[in-house]
Fold this protein.
Amino acid sequence: MHIALYQPGVGYYAAPRPLLGLGPQDGSDFVTAPELSPLFARSLARAVAAWMAHSGVEDIWEFGAGRGALAAELLAELDRLGCGPASGRVKRYVIMEVSGALRGVQAQRLAPFGEVVQWADAWPQRLNAVVLGNEVLDAMPVKLLHRVAGAWHERGVIDVGGHLQWSDRPTALRPPVAPAGEHDYLTEIAPQAEAWMRELGRVLHRGVACLMDYGFPEHEYYHPQRAGGTLMCHQGHQSDPEPLRDVGNKDITAHVDFTAMALAAQAAGLAVVGYTSQGSFLLEAGLVDLLPSVGVAEQAAALKLIHEHEMGELFKVLVVAPEADAAAAPDIGFARGDRTHTL
Ligand SMILES: C[S@@+](CC[C@H](N)C(=O)[O-])C[C@H]1O[C@@H](n2cnc3c(N)ncnc32)[C@H](O)[C@@H]1O
């Protein structure tokens, strides 16, 4: 999965292609919330402003910034709220991006913000910032675990005469909870995403981190009926379950086990500030108040962010912070509908 997504010259994210966009007509493969509607970033800006004021940090770090849509709209909205780069309240907007191709797109889109927007290649030793990541955890390579006739195997890939095929071998690895039953069961674990959360916990000294993605708590993730796992490919705005076909030309993702992310963050000294659905979070952050500021077509797009049958329920928001900032953190986004107890 790492090679298929990130290896230079081969990987999907290494290629200079549109990747993200509104529909197949522009050659893109999938759409994300910030690409779908600027009201995603504008609602989030209200929460970011509150978190910055609460923790006293002056930097924002975004991981996996895609085409720069979230950064551009967020910074503009923070300026409208009087607490953006123009007022000197946001000192730096730092992007960590593994894709050189997307980094180029970001640089072009974010040029109007000048020196405020910067790129980093590695985690700093110590971070005082609001950290953002939209659909980044799902893009990190997972391991496939396959229970066959009651025995667990790790699923790998072999090359048979130029054709890639699955190959299972016995493993001591296990999902965090045993899916009930003895039936054959394919699922994923995400050690890289967990390591990323631990690294976040190690370096985040002051501030708040907000991770947005599709996924569920572990009792839903490892539900006995989810026997085929969540690994999925995206190409031309269609999804398919065949990562071994057309490798490098499509995105490969897995849903996020938010329980595992919260536990990894806690193990590294962070506390959970809130966890809820994207729909609930955006409503609480004020999306409805912003609707009259955009046209009818943009309103319809924005409503997809919160409708349960679109992105409102499958997508979740997890906010974590160092203990000092988690205590008495503003409950913006979570005042009603917090689901931390379900993790
Ligand atoms: C599905 S795209 C989401 C892009 C953007 N956040 C959005 O919502 O439009 C995943 C992004 O995460 C980046 N990415 C994947 N793993 C990463 C990592 N370990 N650190 C930073 N960026 C990463 C990819 O290159 C890509 O920009």
